[in-house]
TrEMBL record:
Similarity annotation: Belongs to the metallo-dependent hydrolases superfamily. Adenosine and AMP deaminases family.
Protein source organism: Lactobacillus nasalidis
SUPFAM superfamilies per the UniProt record, alphabetical: Metallo-dependent hydrolases
Keywords (A to Z) from UniProt: Hydrolase, Metal-binding, Zinc
Adenosine deaminase domain sequence ranges: 5-328
Cofactors demanded by this protein: Zn(2+)
Top-level taxonomic group: Bacteria
Top-level EC class as recorded in UniProt: hydrolase
Protein name from the UniProt record: adenosine deaminase
Documented EC number(s): 3.5.4.4
Gene3D superfamilies cross-referenced by the UniProt entry: Metal-dependent hydrolases
């Protein structure tokens, strides 16, 4: 089995089907399989990022208690380990789990789920999966107060399993990345690393704005291909890009996998990584993403480069990075 690293995986978009069934059953509910798929995963006629983001409402409705969050994290991690993952950074926006919980309580619940998984993992054979969490600020109008709270919660839980921040949500002028500068200025002062979604629905300009906020990592960033000068800057500054092929096909950034420029970006010496984004919404997993790219001719040495790029980009300790590099040589 390949050893894999996923740096861009949203918790609410990756709730395992079996866990959803279990949680519905606890409420005395069930849904026919076809209906469940329709509620959780995008159909082939999904037109854009906004339609894609609609698929998060249903899973989020099940993620409002500490018990549910804890179980979802544990079962997702068990599934990821079974797919060969050895390190992952799971991201979520604690402010979207506050129907009954505070943001800090939502983070504690996720960490408890990780502890449950670690306890289970002790009894398993094979390489361990290590996990860190990234907390997402939401790129939505009217969320400033909640976003400030998230920055503070990240500071309070750094080194307890939270490893950084993200900025996620729709991409448009009203919520342009540059408008979030004060949050990331504060994060920088507190030594919290961050990544920012850019260059997905919005073009190269959104990536330039993300870079101006001081980010070393960009979520997606695939649309840098429209701007050769930007590509040059990204290479020179060693910026890591968290690419997610199936997700970009769902949101129609690309119409077919043959157009997906991952291999040519590796050829441009961009620090590209391959990730899932949303396993359940996109009905994918990381082994499947690699298979898609292999069908496009991904070579063993390119695959190795993707792994090395992920290790370099990870918001992990030096010790953890050394473990990951050693695993590659086994
Ligand atoms: Zn994402």
């Amino acid at each position: 089995m390949k050893k894999l690293i996923d740096l861009h995986l949203h918790l609410d978009g990756s709730v395992p089907y079996q866990t959803v069934r279990k949680l519905l059953a606890e409420e005395g509910k069930s849904l026919p399989e076809a209906e469940l798929r329709k509620r959780l995963s995008v159909s082939p006629d999904c037109r854009n990022l906004d339609e894609y983001l609609d698929k998060f409402d249903f899973p989020l409705s099940l993620m409002q208690t500490a018990e549910n969050l804890r179980l979802i994290v544990k079962e997702l991690l068990q599934e990821l380990r079974g797919q060969g993952l050895v390190y992952t950074e799971i991201r979520f926006a604690p402010q979207r789990h506050t129907k009954f919980l505070t943001q800090a309580e939502a983070v504690q619940a996720a960490l408890a789920g990780r502890d449950d998984f670690y306890a289970w993992q002790k009894e398993q054979e094979g390489p361990d999966l290590h996990v860190n969490f990234l907390l997402c600020l939401m790129r939505l109008v009217g969320q400033d107060e909640a976003n400030w709270e998230t920055v503070k919660v990240a500071r309070d839980f750094m080194d307890q399993g939270v490893a950084g921040l993200d900025l996620a949500g729709p991409e448009n002028e009203e919520v342009a990345n540059r408008k979030y500068a004060p949050f990331f200025q504060q994060a920088k002062e507190w030594g919290i690393p961050y990544t920012i979604h850019a260059g997905e629905a919005a073009g190269p300009e959104s990536m330039r704005e993300a870079l101006a906020l001081g980010t070393k990592r960009i979520g997606h960033g695939i649309r840098c291909q429209e701007d050769p000068a930007l590509v040059k800057d990204l290479v020179e500054d060693g910026i890591s890009l968290e690419c997610c092929a199936s997700s970009n096909l769902n949101t129609k950034v690309f119409n077919q996998i043959a157009e997906y420029p991952l291999r040519s970006m590796l050829g441009q010496k961009l620090r590209v990584t391959l990730n899932t984004d949303n396993m359940t919404v996109s009905a994918t997993n990381l082994p499947h993403e690699y298979q898609l790219m292999e069908k496009q001719g991904l070579t063993k040495s390119e695959e190795r480069q993707l792994y090395l790029n992920s290790v370099r980009a990870a918001f992990a300790s030096q010790e953890e990075k050394e473990r990951l590099l050693a695993l590659l040589e086994e």
